[in-house]
Amino acid sequence: EAGVAQSPRYKIIEKRQSVAFWCNPISGHATLYWYQQILGQGPKLLIQFQNNGVVDDSQLPKDRFSAERLKGVDSTLKIQPAKLEDSAVYLCASSLVVGGDGEQYFGPGTRLTVT
Amino acid sequence: AQSVAQPEDQVNVAEGNPLTVKCTYSVSGNPYLFWYVQYPNRGLQFLLKYITGDNLVKGSYGFEAEFNKSQTSFHLKKPSALVSDSALYFCAVRDPNSGYALNFGKGTSLLVTP
CA nearest B39 in A: which residue? Predict the structure, then answer.
């Protein structure tokens, strides 16, 4: 079974520029998560989708971050404009169902450096 | 809010010795607890979980964890450490108030020396 795919793996941009990340979850997984992992910290949830609907985006900085999951499969996360503090690894994860004891499967992440 | 704490930034152990990585939790209701491992430049990998049942949970790569309700702990253990176990370990709790997303601890770096 193919895992969660993410691209690009690395991105370097200047502050105030925009950037987009792409995620392709495991086939058949209805739930998709975007996490932000700042160096030295654990991942923090940004947004969660169930199919193509948003379940939780309470920690997403909506003035600069946006995400969508068209057709309930692939997802993109965008930052516009980027700030220095956005430098982090952005992890995408998917799970078969919402809640219960379902495991989340993580992609390799996109390492963003904002200069 | 559901949360976990990992009190140690780093754990050092000699190869062949037993290892313990500590995690305590704070939840309302029944906890769903997880351990993940992160190798350099790779995503998080699931190790094991506690949902209900036996307090001793066995997982991947010979790891196990003991759920202790009275001490609100979920420590990760392995009887005999390998150098290849060196990685970053995260404890997490599922938060039913946040779409069942995972709330992670800050991580513990495990270094196993030959």
Answer: A108
All residues of chain A having their beta carbon less than 8 Å from the beta carbon of residue B90 are 42-43
CA dist A64 and B26 (Å) reads: 32
**What does B5-69 look like in DSSP terms, one character per residue?**
E---SEEEEETTS-EEE--EEE-SSS--EEEEEE-TTS-EEEEEEE-SS-SEEE-GGG-EEEEET
Q: Which pLDDT tens digit goes with each residue over A10-68?
A: 999 999 999 999 999 999 998 999 999 999 899 999 999 988 899 889 999 999 999 99
Asked if A42 is an interface residue toward chain B (Cβ–Cβ < 8 A), one would say yes
B63 within 8 A of B23, measured Cβ to Cβ: no
